[in-house]
Amino acid sequence: MQIRTATEADASAIARLHLSSYRTAYRGLLPDGVLAAYDPAEREHRWLERLHDPSRTTFVTTPALVAFAEIGPSAVPLTGELLALHVASSHWRQGLGRALHSHALKALTGRGFQSATLWVLDGNQRACAFYEAAGWAFTGEARRRHLRGTTVHELRYRRELTP
């Protein structure tokens, strides 16, 4: 598999993968009703908006779109953010997440960022273990967000970027 920058034509496939990934990875962490309430058409519309945002870049696997990563600036100066990293469960543990992660960090470095941050849903042990193995460290910061009528807790991770 190779990695390329996503285009508007990828919005539908990214949206489907995003929903599938949410429903698999967050089962037991979010209420079933919240996971079921996501609308594919709404998610596709949101991805079209994100793909048109010049501050963000989304990378996808090709020829089959089975994983994606999204990056952008953080509110903290000289810090980029890994906004999303999702791999279809049928392709877990095949190195796609690592490859996309590496590609995303190189892209952040190429934009001049010196460090990166990300947020992980509290309790998502698979994601926490992945990021910790990749050199990220929990900062001790947490935040609450309201998501479709429920409050979720997220943990902030950070790492330095090397040129």
Give the averaged pLDDT, no decimals: 92
Q: Report the end-to-end length measured between terminal Cα atoms.
A: 25 Å
Level-2 CATH architecture: 3-Layer(aba) Sandwich
Low-confidence stretches: none
CATH topology: Aminopeptidase
Number of separate helices = 5
- Strand coverage percent: 25-35%
Number of self-contained structural domains: 1
Q: List the helices and strands in order.
A: EHHHEEEHEHEE
Helix content: 25-40%
How many strands, what sense, and barrel or not for the largest sheet? 7 strands, mixed
InterPro entries: Acyl_CoA_acyltransferase, Bact_Acetyltransf, GNAT_dom
Pfam family, one: Acetyltransf_1
GO molecular function: acyltransferase activity, transferring groups other than amino-acyl groups
Protein name: GNAT family N-acetyltransferase
Features of the shown structure:
Aminopeptidase; 163 residues; alpha+beta; seven-stranded mixed sheet; 7 strands
Description of the molecule:
The structure is a single chain. This protein has 163 residues and is an alpha+beta fold. The chain has a single domain (2-160), classed as Gcn5-related N-acetyltransferase (GNAT) (Aminopeptidase). Helix content is 36%, strand content 34%. The protein contains five helices and seven strands; from the N terminus they run E-H-H-H-E-E-E-H-E-H-E-E. Strands 1-2-3-4-5-7-6 form a seven-stranded mixed β-sheet, sandwiched between helices. Strand 6 (137-147) and strand 7 form a beta hairpin. The longest helix is centred in the first third of the chain and has 15 residues, at 11-25. The chain is globular and about 40 Å long. This is GNAT family N-acetyltransferase. GO terms for molecular function: acyltransferase activity, transferring groups other than amino-acyl groups. It comes from Actinomadura montaniterrae. Residues 1-162 form the N-acetyltransferase domain. Keywords: Acyltransferase, Transferase.
